[in-house]
TrEMBL record:
Biological process according to GO: proteolysis
Transmembrane segments: 198-217
Domain Peptidase S1, first and last residues per copy: 1-210
Superkingdom to which the source organism belongs: Eukaryota
Pfam families: Trypsin (PF00089)
Origin species: Glossina pallidipes (Tsetse fly)
Keywords of the record: Disulfide bond, Hydrolase, Membrane, Protease, Serine protease, Transmembrane, Transmembrane helix
A molecular function GO annotation: serine-type endopeptidase activity
Keyword ATP-binding attributed: no
Family: Belongs to the peptidase S1 family.
InterPro entries xref list: Peptidase_S1, Peptidase_S1_PA, Peptidase_S1_PA_chymotrypsin, Peptidase_S1A, Trypsin_dom, TRYPSIN_HIS
CDD domains hit by this protein: Tryp_SPc
Protein name as it appears in the record: Peptidase S1 domain-containing protein
Amino acid sequence: MEPLFSEGSAAVERSGSHFCGGSFYDQNHIVTAAHCLQEAISSQIKLPAGSTTWNDGGILLDVADFKIHKGYSSNLMMNDVAVIRLASSVTYSSTIKNIDLAKKAAADGAEASVKGWGTLHSGGASLPVTLQTVNVDIVSREKCASSSYGYESQIRPTMICAYTEGKDSCQGNSGGPLVSGGRLVRVVSWNAAHFQTILVFMLILPTFVNGFSTLLLQFKFRLTDM
């Protein structure tokens, strides 16, 4: 992974340690992965933002509460998405702004990127101080679930994959953004290696986010877009 500007990204700290990544949905909400918030309480969570270093610079945001998708399954990694509500609205700046949600699914083979403060290799014991990015290519759900990749029934309807030979997104990047065409397509959910190492991303449903934040829907995902 390579260093990147922090725009749109937030780190998720639990009890003072970096745990996951997240993305600004708007000035009051952060989107992340559900498994990042399992057994957590709001007072444990802090959100460093506005800096490329998760432990220095920028601002530290407090959390009012959060909601894990009611359909989340830790066994199947289904609906692995959550929304954090900030204790107070954040002011956008050159280093803090939202990433607009994609209005349609990214096409198979589309260029995309993942960013976060996770480890630089699988099983790594230390985290990079500086925000990193890795460029990947979208792999459709149908292709990822085929025998070519070997994941088959593990790939559920709300998942898509991404792959680039020799590159990966490791521990500590869960919940971070998958961006394609300048828009937030999915959040990092899990990765594994069978025939080829792939990253699996979870669909963000605006109906879920807006059901929590009472915002008006500006667009909808359809099942046919997944």
